Amino acid sequence: MATSSAPAPPPTPARDGPRRRQPLRNLFHRLDLRAAPYTFIAPFFIIFGAFSLYPLIYTSWISLHRVELSAMDMMEWQGFENYVNLWQDDRFWNALTNTFTIGVISTVPQLLMALGLAHLLNYRLRGSAFFRVAALAPYATSVGAAALVFTMLFERDFGMINWALGLVGIENVDWENEKWPAQLAISTIVIWRWTGYNALLYLAAMQAIPRDRYEAAAIDGASRWQQFTRVTVPGIRATIVFTIVLSTIGATQIFGEPLIFGQGPNGVTGGADNQYQTLGLLLYEEGWRNGQMGRAATVAWAMFLILILVFVLQRVLAGARSRREPGRRRAAAGAASAGRQSR
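^ that's the sequence the OP posted. Answer follows.
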């Protein structure tokens, strides 16, 4: 009997291709998930390495050599001799003192005025947007234009400041050639330029404070001043610390204001007697007037180390304050509970 064979099943498509592509897709997916974040932040690190980290390392290397501006490719190894000479240089200590005094005279009034201005702008005022823009206008002004205008205002014979002082019987002040008047005039330029900027930082921090805190303080009978000292200032403490650090960095690097205030050769030396020469001016004098790039690099690294020291000191003080804060809170809570029990 003849038997009929069953038809052969149709050939199944080969699945080797998709099976081989699947691990490759998984690999690309894992690379995308893990490498994409590093790809996005890579431009920052490239720019930081090229324009910040490399100059910092190269400057430290130059500071260990004797290098002249006219022959940068010729370096003579000196080790730490430049640092020893800088430590023994009276000009460095004079510039450091002037930088400190100008920084204090400009920073303290600047931040206090910024805090008061931000407190006023925090209230609902007509034209508040205009006042905020006006407060930021000095910051947008170039340092050259601001310093030039204030230099004319503080001019000895025909300046408006001496004219106003003459109306109350004060003789003309030689703002440029006397130490403290010169530093006060330079500090005035810094205060005018940076007060509005810090005020807007404080204002942004104040507006982030919940209104419930002010309502609770008002219910407890706190005055406007008590609300400011007990609610506003503690609420923006982190911003205040930030502005102090930022102003300290700016005071250490102050350069344009005293340079233009000197109106000529005396601007580089900080006056005829170096009465307002800062560390930035000393760096410029050593590098571009005297042509000693090794000494200039040493001054730059001294400024960098000073900033690190200030930052470490600030962190130590902040840590000490944070350790004392729980004890103060417990003491205040205990005093409050004792008062309630006595009533």
